[in-house]
Amino acid sequence: MSELADERPGTGAAMESVPGTARATDAAGTAGTSDRRLLRGAQTRQTIARHAADVASLEGLSGLSIGRLATDLGLSKSGVQTLFGTKERLQVAAAESAREAFLDAVVRTAWSAPRGAARLRALTEHWIAYAEAPLFPGGCFWAANLADFDSRPGKVRDTLSGHHRDWLDTLSGELREAVGAEEIAGVDAELTAFQIDAVLTAANIALRLGADDATAKARRVIDGFLAAPR
């Protein structure tokens, strides 16, 4: 009985004769190693892009260099070069990383508020908090970079302007909701979104220059836009 048992597939020496078993095991191990390397590469890329966003908020996207980031993060220049390829791709990755951080801090946190005036207040309050306790060391990432690329067509400019347009669309969409619900007086949603964005941007600049009353002024202006209809 014991000899027959040893010959059953999947037990004892008989396992050695199952075709492809060793090759399948080796392939699975190789795939697992490859997956882990890809994951580490993606995580490293995210870390570099986030640091690049911080640097660009202070020195601009034009000031980014692969060598500088490699030195800052204790990585090899060739490794960073492999992950991004070109300076333009690095700049775009930094902008996309900044966008994700902004969405988490300002936009997604406002989704719990009801649409319309309440969400508008949440969005503007989160934006003010984003500027008061800067998410990026140089303050608003887009205020620091949009002007530098406004006359430089290309992928970086398209990315930055797309982010800014999305923000304006978010504001104008909530303004239309508030007007439709008669929470605020009838306004031109696109124009008012432009004005609110301008006020917030001005507050960010004033804060960077040490004007502690900048956010109080911004709130007063925004309150005027969100006042209930008479």
What is the fourth-level CATH superfamily? Tetracycline Repressor, domain 2
Task: Assign the CATH topology.
Answer: Tetracycline Repressor, domain 2
Order of secondary-structure elements: HHHHHHHHHH
**The CATH class:** Mainly Alpha
**CATH-defined architecture:** Orthogonal Bundle
Helix content: over 70%
Explained architecture:
By secondary structure, the protein is mostly helical. The protein has a single domain (18-225), classed as Orthogonal Bundle (Tetracycline Repressor, domain 2). It is 72% helix and 0% strand. It has ten helices and no strands. It has helices at 2-7, 21-59, 66-73, 77-84, 87-107, 117-132, 141-149, 155-180, 189-208, 214-225. Helix 7 (141-149) crosses helix 8. It is elongated and about 65 Å long. The model is unreliable at 1-18 (pLDDT under 50).
List keywords for this structure.
230 residues, mainly alpha, Tetracycline Repressor, domain 2
Describe the structure concisely for a colleague.
The protein has one domain: Tetracycline Repressor, domain 2.
Helices and strands in order:
Layout: H1 2-7, H2 21-59, H3 66-73, H4 77-84, H5 87-107, H6 117-132, H7 141-149, H8 155-180, H9 189-208, H10 214-225
Helix pairs in contact: 2-5, 2-7, 3-4, 5-6, 5-8, 6-8, 6-9, 7-8, 8-9, 9-10
